[in-house]
Design a protein that fits this description.
Radius of gyration: 26 Å
Oligomer: single chain
Order of helices and strands: HHHHHHHH
Distance between the termini: 38 Å
Strand content: under 5%
Number of strands: 0
Largest sheet: none
Shape: elongated
């Protein structure tokens, strides 16, 4: 759901030149901010999905298949299945020992959902502003065809007021998105730190893949305490 929502956002934002032509010049920086946040969240989601599908399920399933193929009796199959469930529960952080890590993971999901909700509300504001600009543009064209040149003082004052209100709305929305990005970055930092403290190497390497260029480590500086994995070193080093 989250990945689909982020991709939908990216696609909708990419069409603003066509769907919001009357205000697109005012929202270029705004769109850039959205794309950065969206890409950051998409990277996180895709890495977690890769970890779940391939590092956990695919590898564990292959081990189960091998165990079943070499099993001599039903007890061996049952034992292999129990071992499979135990490994999957462990690496997917579904047991009690990893409740804290799982909670931090859910916090990132929640932040992504909050960002999508804020985007939908912002998009409605942008659509209304575009409609107002479109009506203004059509009205000016109609007056021009009728030979009525220029803008009356009362109309000009209304236009200035509308533009001020729109710019104020953009600033308010941009602030909300900045807060969303900051909250997501902080919760992701906490999740990476929790992963780096785990004994399981695959979970440690999940933090390595998410922060492969040490962006978050450099961003948060001294707040990254503990045995955080350096990308240039192996886990065993």
């Amino acid at each position: 759901r989250i990945e689909h929502g982020l991709r939908r956002m990216w696609g909708k934002t990419a069409t603003w030149d066509r769907t919001l032509p009357h205000i697109v010049g005012d929202i270029r920086e705004f769109r850039h901010q959205i794309n950065i946040i969206c890409c950051e969240m998409q990277h996180f989601i895709s890495q977690v999905q890769y970890y779940i599908n391939f590092e956990v399920l695919e590898c564990s399933w292959k081990e189960l298949e091998n165990a079943v193929d070499t099993a001599e009796n039903l007890d061996h199959i049952i034992e292999a299945h129990k071992r499979f469930l135990g490994i999957v529960s462990e690496r997917l952080m579904l047991n009690q020992e990893h409740l804290q890590v799982l909670t931090k993971l859910y916090a990132n999901y929640k932040n992504a959902i909050n960002f999508m909700d804020a985007y939908d509300k912002a998009h409605e504001v942008l659509k209304k502003a575009n409609i107002i600009r479109a009506k203004r543009h059509d009205s000016m064209n109609l007056k021009t065809k009728q030979g009525d040149w220029g803008i009356k003082a009362a109309d000009e004052a209304a236009i200035v007021q509308e533009d001020k209100e729109f710019q104020a709305q953009l600033k308010a929305i941009a602030k909300i998105f900045t807060n969303n990005q900051s909250t997501f970055s902080t919760s992701l930092r906490d999740f990476l730190m929790a992963l780096s403290l785990e004994a399981d190497d695959s979970m440690k390497f999940l933090s390595l893949r998410i922060d492969f260029n040490e962006h978050y480590k450099q961003k948060h500086g001294n707040n990254f305490n503990g045995p955080y994995i350096n990308r240039t070193k192996s886990v065993d080093a």
